[in-house]
Amino acid sequence: MLLSEREIELPAVPGHSGLLSHLGKTIPGRLGHGQVPLRVAITESRADAYRCEVSIHDSDGKPSGSSTSTSMFELVPRTSENADSFNVVLLVPTGVGAEIGGHAGDAAPVARLLATLCDNLITHPNVVNGSDINEIPDNGLYVEGSVLCRLLMGTVGLRRVRSNRVLVVIDAHSDRAFVDAAVNSVSAARSSYGLRCPFVVKLDPSMRMEADYASSGRAVGRVGELDALWEALDAYRGRYDAVAVSSVISVPKRYHMEYFTSEGDMVNPWGGVEAMLTHAISTFYDVPSAHSPMLESREIANLDPGIVDPRMAAEIVSVAFLQSVLKGLHRSPRIVTDNDAMRDTGVLTAADVSCLVIPDGCVGVPTLAALEQGIPVIAVCENRNLMRNDLATLPWGPDQLYIVENYWEAMGVMASMKAGIAPESTRRPLAGTRIETVTLEHRSDR
Questions:
Q1: What is the arithmetic mean of pLDDT over 367-383?
Q2: CATH of the domain at 50
Q3: Confidence category of residue 70, pLDDT binned at 50, 70, 90
Q4: Would you call 153 helix, strand, or coil by DSSP?
């Protein structure tokens, strides 16, 4: 069993209408037998075609102990919006070179700022994970990317928990120092904030995770030898609520120095393949999951890039990189898949999502799900990235897309939405009131 990345070009649909359905009908047909799509990014939209990058689980079937998950393209339309609370989804896609949130937890200040306006801020590990630092706000819900997609698609709900039993799975590293660092991180979490960890499981043989870049420049990769991981998750099923994985990601040795001395110009090479793995775990097992990389060797650990770009600094001061994952999963919400249970009080569903905040130009399942569900989208231009899409060309409903300059401006739009005020009414010039006349055709009395 392995995870890999495939680049696919699909024909465009007129006016981009029904694009989500178009992806769901065409992408599976481009894959081979036993290949399951897990993650999709449209990296470039043209008048005649879409360039897509698809993460794939390639095997003769799903892991034996996995849940019966729906297709990632299945949409359950919401019939209305629940206005009893104001809940925001904050997304910064992993591996796209985002100016804010593309490195090591450097979108956490944005998350904490936006959370001040929300009842719940729903976000994912890439936003707040900074090696040993995780500053997710108290009203934040830490949700793996595939679960966030399914929430917006209407196929899962989220239920808050007091805490989770976190199963920690680590590589049987050839250098015991890195195994000890991972175990000590778990022990520190148990002693400092009461993490419940039933087991630390060492995988032997280990997975093989390799980072790479797609032609778009987006960080991707390949994960092989997954059988031991799936067997471990099957063997301990029912004894954990969330899964943390710490394993080696192979990259060319020069990347370690080039990345940390690039002043942010180089896309983080590790995040893309991590997202591929966690999408697979959460898709097949319906549990929260997150990954942290293990250092390959002491030689790599001893590299000294000096003072680095502040966005990368959290990685420089860590050895195990695991603490942010443990803290996030400690209270990650339960994934609810039963249709009846999704109607229970306290379960957040697509009907409870008030808006989605994304970097401008990013088109994947979350953006397209919001489009179909009538969820307002706020796109932030200042969060530049590699994606080449013009969001304004999608068939949005009235007052559904707001393109703003920065996250300060996004806060203003969110505050207007929460207050029930048309955002444009606070700007000048204010357009004149539109008047339309309806003339009834003359009909003679009968």
A1: 98
A2: 3.30.70
A3: confident
A4: helix
